[in-house]
Predict the structure.
Amino acid sequence: MLGGRRTRGERMPRGFLIALAAKNLARHKRRTLITASAIAFGVAIFVAMSSLLEGFAAENNRNVSRYETGDAAATAPGYWDERETLPLDRVIETPQEILEALEREGIPAAPRVAFRGELIVRYDPFPEDGSIQRTFYGIDVERDPEVFGLSEAIVEGRFPHAGQEEVVIGRWLAERLGAEIGYPISVTTRTRDGFHQIMDLEIVGIFNTSNPILNRYQAFLPIGVADEYLEMRGAVTSIHMSLPGTLPSEADTEPVREVLSDFDHVEFLSFERLNEEFAEIMEMENASNAIILLLLGLIAVVGISNTMLMSVLERENEIGMMRAMGFRNGEIRSMFAYEAAGIGLIGAIGGVALGSVLVWLSVSYGLDYGVLMDGAEMDFRFDGVLYGVWNVPTMVASAAFAVVLAGVVAIVPTRRILRRSITDSLRHA
Amino acid sequence: MITVHEVHKDYIDGETRVHALRGVSMDIDSGEFLSIAGPSGSGKTTLLNIIGCIDTADAGDIDIDGERVAGRSKRELTEMRRQKIGFVFQNFNLIPVLTAYENVSMSLSLLGVSQEETQERTMGLLAEVGLEGMEHRRPSRLSGGQQQRVAVARALIKDPLIVLADEPTANLDSETGEAILELMKDVNRRRGTTFVFSTHDHMVMDYAARLCRLHDGLIESDERRSA
């Protein structure tokens, strides 16, 4: 009686189920498009936000490395943990030996003396009297440009000369003080031994870096002048190094570690350590990004789930027929999962396309926070225009996530309908 | 070929227990053209569903092709339907996004039949049921009668042990209904396919070679006639 070729337990070809799912997608084009649009919106926002966040992190790292810390640093043990107070009792007493050792290894390095002081300006030539607390750095004007980009950021005047009582300040600060080249300032501070000290300096240069922390809060003078006024006796608070690569790897830092291992009372600080505050901020940013992703995912889940529920309920009779014909529940589940994944795919393609446009805009033109940031307190190292970066893996991952999520979401409504008896489904009008 | 033995089935309708089948027994031989007739609520659809393994009996048993149905898992019942049973539904139940060809060939996809054989068998069968040239039409572009022909072809394509048709002409006008019955009868004669169909329509009953009347869940009469 049984004719034809057949095999027991044969599996329905996946190609047929995918083709059927694709055809089913076209049944309710508008509904498919609306759901896919919600997914596209989520994917696009995520892609654009990731691009900006990554651009933000890259810009921050670049600005920290180029203007504040270098790629690695050495301090006296414990100095970095107390850096908020800029202690002058935790110093490297013999920096010259370390600098020479680093030089022998071909590692560019520059010493700095960091201290806090009250910057005082007086009426005439300044528009008014006043004072403001700022962080000052004594820098080695010869070595500093080998590690930092400050000398290239001078927009007015010049870089200070060694041994001269000169200072360079940021343009943001200069504008607010009404300072110009040649104006005198006074700085009150305390010496290494804790005595009050006052320094008279001349503004010889105004810089404008892409790091607003420098532009607003920091001023730089020759290290010899700082040494003399602060009675450092040749000691420095830190030595900064330039290493190959944007973010030096463990292997890049190895020669530095080796050099420093010959010296007592010196602590090596990797870029990760130097930048750990920002890394913590980025972790929080990433966490908030994850929450946004979760919310967008939730919108997509509700949308797909609703669409698939409607789809499944409308086709209950058809599902009953398919089960009667011998379709396995798994095959029907797969068909609906492919269908939902198809909606996810349309949404993902649309989302990546829209996201790419947003990323292109952010890479080309950036997002200008300048007006918002101008008067605000600044913790981040970017100068107001936030540029995105292209991140293809994130785009691919978010698209894949949307497709998989959509496919998985379809399981719930399909399972609900498959729990009903075939006869009940067939009776469904 | 199929033995139905003392089958009972109850339904709960609200707070009332409905005895749909109250001990039905019958044998169905290969090549029969059997009509299960009776008024609405007599239990004919329930009996067809149980024979078709899409519903289970509360008591009693069914043997299909020597295999006991009782105690089988859902998966085993699915395999049995997939391999051995064809269905024709009252409202055709074609998949609207598939063409006539695809609706029919789908059954062969389930069995893993090669594409060449699928094409050969599907085209042959569509021609046999009078749908030559309409293979690429979707159900919306077919009349009710043509749709039911597609449904008949879909049931037949896998060469099933039995084709179960629940009121196959109920949604068709009498002329189209008769044409469908002629088609089924013709297939039964030429291929020897076993057909079991339910009806309450006297015109349809007249086509049956064997007429089994159900009343209140019991077989009232079972007569074999020359068609």
User: Anything to note?
Assistant: The mean pLDDT of chain B is 92. The two ends of chain B are 21 Å apart (CA to CA).
